[in-house]
Design brief:
This protein is of the alpha+beta class and 310 residues long. The protein has one domain. It contains seven helices and 16 strands. Helix 4 runs antiparallel to helix 5. The two termini are 22 Å apart.
Length: 310
């Protein structure tokens, strides 16, 4: 079995819902029971990529046969859930910040340890106080002149941190390989807050939309036809793992197929007809990445994310 990390960038609000709500929001996003972290189910991701694969033979080898023939063999690819890595939060300076926390970075680190070649992963900084926000440097985009950072109605003391800068560069190279402008933009807005602060932002920094249903004849609102939907904001970044197991297709064919399917944005989650769920996917790490590969001939440059060889 070979593994790679998979990063997801939401280009529009992302609604990966549960289909029911227990509070004021009728259609909330899916969250982990223990942590409250939003996630996109791996089954949803696999279904979209399977549908995007138009070659029936490749689709059967990589993703497995249709349900009527599911007894024949399993698929060669498995997806973990895509879990929150960076949450975009409105900032008084710099428009918005990409916010994360030590716990979220630890989970990302744990995933990265399953991937060959990730041997230079940065250390994780711990904000000493709930009022601190660790940033990449003194002059980052989100820091005010008095070394304060303000998100929504929360203010923090900016603490420059080399480990935070290293994490921003590490993540940026994998989400935006070859695009130095976006790598710099992420580094300028990247920050780490206390886990308790992150828990509060997870409840208050998501987008909530009010929706109505109109009578077709009168164009007035039907009775009891007002509901609220939650979505992760555009620019949210999720991460997870994708595994390749040799069943009918080897790891090289699996990852090459996925790379081809991920060249253009895909629609994930629900509410596609109102513009939700346009996302870009990017794989990173791992070793061999060419069809029918030979060890040492075709490998990925882990520092840049570029594939070399035949």
């Amino acid at each position: 079995m070979e593994a790679r990390m998979l990063f997801l960038l939401a280009l529009s609000p992302l609604h990966a819902g549960t289909g029911q709500g227990a509070g004021a929001i009728d259609l909330p996003v899916a969250r982990e029971k223990a942590t409250g972290l939003p996630y996109l189910p791996g089954s949803s991701l696999k279904g979209v990529l399977r549908d995007e694969c138009k070659n029936s033979e490749t689709r059967k080898k990589v993703f497995g046969p249709d349900k009527d023939s599911a007894h024949e063999h399993a698929g060669s690819v498995q997806f973990s859930d895509q879990r929150l890595l960076l949450l975009p939060v409105r900032s008084l300076k710099g428009t918005f910040a990409w916010v994360t926390s030590p716990y979220i970075l630890r989970r990302c680190l744990r995933d990265a340890e399953n991937v060959i070649g990730f041997d230079k992963i940065p250390e994780i900084s711990l904000p000493g106080s709930i009022g601190n926000c660790h940033v990449t440097n003194d002059e980052c985009t989100i820091t005010l002149d008095d070394q304060k950072v303000i998100f929504e109605d929360l203010d923090f003391t900016a603490v420059p941190d080399e480990n935070v800068r290293a994490w921003a560069e590490w993540i940026g190279k994998r989400i935006f390989p070859g695009d130095t402008d976006w790598q710099k933009m992420l580094a300028a807005r990247f920050c780490v807050v206390h886990d308790d602060v992150m828990g509060f932002l997870l409840e208050t920094a998501t987008e909530v939309f009010a929706r109505i249903r109109l009578r077709e004849d009168a164009k007035t609102v039907e009775n009891n036809a007002l509901w609220y939907e939650e979505a992760l904001p555009a620019e949210t970044i999720l991460s997870g793992l994708v595994f390749a197991t040799t069943v009918k297709a080897g790891p090289g064919e699996v990852f090459n197929t996925l790379e081809g399917l991920m060249k253009k944005p895909l629609q994930l989650g629900g509410k596609a007809t109102v513009g939700r769920g346009l996302c870009r996917l990017q794989m990173a790490g791992g070793g061999i990445s060419c069809a029918d590969p030979q060890p040492g001939v075709c490998r990925q440059d882990l520092s840049t994310g570029e594939t070399t060889g035949r």
